[in-house]
Write a structure and sequence with these properties.
2 strands, Multidrug-efflux Transporter Regulator, Chain: A, Domain 2, about 150 residues, mainly alpha, DNA-binding, homodimer
DNA sequence: CATGATGTTGACGTGAGCGTTAATCTTAGG
DNA sequence: CCTAAGATTAACGCTCACGTCAACATCATG
């Protein structure tokens, strides 16, 4: 689709990981180059790059381990499958099935993300409250007598 | 202050970690029992329990490693120090110094938390958008002809 | 005061997520 | 066509955050 334009080193540099990391993700079935050079070197498309970025996002933002991420990625792959089957004209029941599954997985992930969002928000508000107290304290301590 | 009421196993159970974890945190200087039994067993106060909880929060919510958490914890300890010095009546300059440092550390942490919050929010919105698309697709696919 | 549950230190083990090295092969540019 | 830069597989290494086990000490409860 996008053309297999990037070599592994370029992908690594663009995403901010090492080539080892990308190969490791491939070992685990998280990503795979959408093509190969005549000699057998990996060639990545723009979507592949996005794939690696997504893995990193799920890792850093949500703190998921790679096996969990794998499940999510596989789910998204199945959805891609669905799209293709849709265009190819697969039977109705099958479509329904896969689509409902995709929705379920998406909902679960959304739930977790929402939960995390809420908890971080609460945490931030704690910190904000502290910040206010500190600054109030600073003003009290440092004010040259009182302006009255 | 609160009394040293808990044994390590009780703390572990309440927080949802193992005793090994608590001892490991102690090794790293993240927590320490506020007392000991005559025979040398660790005794924890309610605040100590809160301390362990906080470490877990920083780990799970923010994804910090234990060294980073150590820095944060140490900063908070210094603030506690300040409070005591304040009550004891330390000199003005010193107060200012420590307080400003505490504020700086709090601000840095707040910044990171805000950043993470924003990024997760963006991520959630992506997921929400996807959810809408999926459901729209489901409706299209499953509707029995069209109600018109 | 006995005794089972719990705690202590110390040491080695473990899984995840890569880092690093080695030996060989490809690729891209002049 | 030559060559430096980059890629390939395979294997071992390493750090972090604990798990696990041993050998012993202590605690709390009847």
């Amino acid at each position: 689709m996008t053309g297999e334009t990037y070599r592994i080193g370029q992908v690594a540099e663009r995403v901010g990981v090492t080539t080892r990391t990308i190969r490791y993700y491939e070992e685990l079935g998280l990503v795979s180059p959408s093509g190969h050079s005549p000699g057998g070197a990996r060639r990545y498309s723009e979507e592949d790059v996005a794939g690696v970025r997504r893995i990193r996002e799920l890792q850093e933002l949500m703190g998921f381990d790679l096996q969990t991420i794998r499940r999510i990625v596989l789910a998204e792959r199945r959805l891609q499958e669905l799209r293709e089957q849709y265009r190819a004209g697969v039977d109705e029941a099958r479509r329904q099935e896969i689509l409902r599954e995709a929705i379920a997985i998406n909902d679960e992930l959304r739930g977790e993300v929402r939960d995390k969002l809420d908890r971080i928000q609460a945490f931030l508000e704690e910190l904000n409250a502290k910040a206010v107290r500190y600054r109030r304290f600073l003003r009290v301590t440092s004010s040259p007598r009182s302006t009255a």
